[in-house]
Design a protein that fits this description.
Blueprint: H1 3-14, E1 20-24, H2 28-36, H3 44-55, E2 64-69, H4 84-90, E3 94-97, E4 104-105, E5 113-114, H5 121-128, H6 132-142, E6 151-152, H7 168-182, E7 189-192, H8 199-211, E8 219-224, H9 226-236, H10 243-261
Parallel strand pairs: 1-2, 1-8, 2-3, 6-7, 7-8
Antiparallel strand pairs: 4-5
The chain binds 1,3-dihydroxyacetonephosphate.
């Protein structure tokens, strides 16, 4: 299989009209923060147990098409001795890995380097405001990235923390306006981060976006980390007896987001 065919196959496996991405790629400091909130120590064993609990959730593949893993998860196994990326595959979930680890060669652009590059992001954001997507697609064009083989993971357009809460319809309209002005139709899927939204809020906003999508050419889906995992993490509390409850909490969020992809969610379904 050529690289182009392999990329197309991966996109086909990842993108459909119903499912989304589960982001479980928290770096060591972030997972430690999440575990602190439920008084669980961030040991390698606890991280392995929690992440295998998520991936072992029965029927997760009905709602989740792919997962973003953190580096160490690639070589960890579930209690039955199966590698966690294989556990994902066995549910028809494509496993991927977060790769931002310093500087390295940029594939397809000999001589160019790509960096993890979050340094100074806060300062740059002040300059970039609403220009981010233009810059991203300009850079992708310069580097010959094939748009048909990428997935865009943006934030929704949300009010700042100090501002009043915006209605889901307002968020949807603002988000769709920016995307329609900037994202080429060749991109197959836009998968939003939850980016600090609560689980229900993130589902409601995704629902509004899909209701108001009109003739938008891309799938409008999720790459939620916190908004999918938070209820599961809190149900788990680091205790084996809560394993099933944690899996049910994850499945519930995955299922409700699946409805939101079709604009068929309402808060009453919580
Ligand atoms: P959050 O949904 O927690 O913002 O993270 C999403 C993500 O895709 C991280 O890679």
């Amino acid at each position: 299989m050529s690289i182009k065919q392999a990329l197309q196959q991966t996109i086909n496996d990842m993108v459909d009209a119903h499912r989304g991405i589960l982001a479980m790629d928290e770096s060591a400091p972030t997972i430690e923060k999440r575990f602190d909130a439920i008084s669980v120590e961030s040991t390698e064993e606890n991280r392995r147990y929690y992440r295998s609990l998520l991936l072992d959730t029965k029927d997760l593949g009905d709602y989740i098409s792919s997962v973003i893993l953190f580096d160490e998860t690639l070589t960890q196994k579930n209690d039955a001795g199966k590698l966690l990326p294989e556990v994902a595959w066995s549910q028809k979930i494509v496993p991927g890995v977060k790769v931002d680890k310093g500087k390295g060669p940029l594939p397809g652009a000999p001589g160019d380097l790509i960096t993890s590059g979050l340094d100074g992001l806060a300062e740059r954001l002040a300059i970039y405001r609403e220009q981010v997507l233009h810059s991203v697609f300009h850079a992708l064009h310069l580097h010959n990235v094939r748009l048909e083989h990428m997935i865009l993971k943006p934030n929704m357009v949300l009010p700042g923390k100090e501002c009043r809460r915006a209605a889901p319809q307002e968020i949807a309209k603002a988000t769709l306006k920016v995307l329609k002005r900037t994202v080429p139709a060749a991109v197959p899927s836009v998968n939003f981060l939850s980016g600090g939204q609560g689980p229900e809020e993130a589902t409601e906003n995704l629902n509004s976006i899909n209701k108001l999508r009109g003739n938008a050419p891309w799938q409008l889906s999720i790459s939620y980390g916190r908004a999918l995992q938070q209820p599961a993490l809190h149900a788990w509390q680091g205790t084996i007896e809560n394993r099933e409850a944690a899996q049910q909490a994850l499945l519930k969020r995955a299922r409700l987001n699946n409805l939101a992809r079709r604009g068929e969610y309402s808060p009453g379904l919580e």
